[in-house]
Design a protein that fits this description.
Number of helices: 5
Low-confidence stretches: 1-7
Number of strands: 8
Helix content: 25-40%
Structural class: alpha+beta
Mean pLDDT: 84
Largest sheet: 3 strands, antiparallel
Order of helices and strands: EHEEHEHHEHEEE
Oligomer: single chain
Strand content: 25-35%
Distance between the termini: 17 Å
Radius of gyration: 16 Å
Length: 171
């Protein structure tokens, strides 16, 4: 077992790895990760985010997923992007996001065959993507202990396995 202090990008990558791992002898329940790309000056974001927020706060969704929100540098100025520009740009680049708002569920930024990403207000699509991992397990267990200090959040993450990961490539 290892205790790591990690950045938001590495944390998101670990969560995606956790969500995608499925060996037969896995024992840790999987939980979805929803990443939201947004911008404070984005009109469609202002329209869609309240719908997303209402869906996430529904009692039926308690403990189904974790959420990370990051801010693109476009279409206009965004103080939350300015607070962590490298992390925000790296997520946008990693997923090839070209428009906001956009929801990424378990590493999936676009539905197969679609040109555009998944809008956060399309809660029925988000619900079906989250449901894909419910009731499944993973050999990787993540224990996250977040700490907020001076406007910055860091996380101590313990990564452990319930089964050998022979031949696995972890990124």
């Amino acid at each position: 077992m290892a205790l790591l202090r990690i950045s938001g990008m590495v944390f998101a990558s670990l969560i995606i790895l956790f969500a995608l791992a499925t060996p037969a002898d896995a024992q840790s329940p999987r939980k979805s990760l929803i990443e939201i790309a947004t911008n404070a000056s984005c009109g469609p974001c202002a329209y869609q985010m309240p719908v997303f927020d209402e869906w996430t706060q529904d009692a039926a969704n308690k403990d189904r997923f974790s959420i990370i929100v990051w801010h693109a540098h476009w279409p206009g100025k965004d103080v939350m992007h300015a607070a962590a520009p490298d992390m925000n740009r790296s997520r946008t680049s990693f997923y090839g996001i070209s428009g906001v708002p956009n929801a990424v569920v378990n590493g999936l930024a676009k539905l197969p065959g679609e040109t555009y990403g998944i809008g956060p207000s399309k809660t029925s699509i988000l619900d079906s993507l989250v449901a894909l991992v419910e009731g499944t397990t993973s050999p990787i267990t993540l224990t996250v202990q977040p700490t907020a200090c001076e406007g910055k959040v860091t996380a101590d993450v313990t990564v452990s396995t319930t089964a050998p990961l022979t031949g696995a490539v972890l990124q």
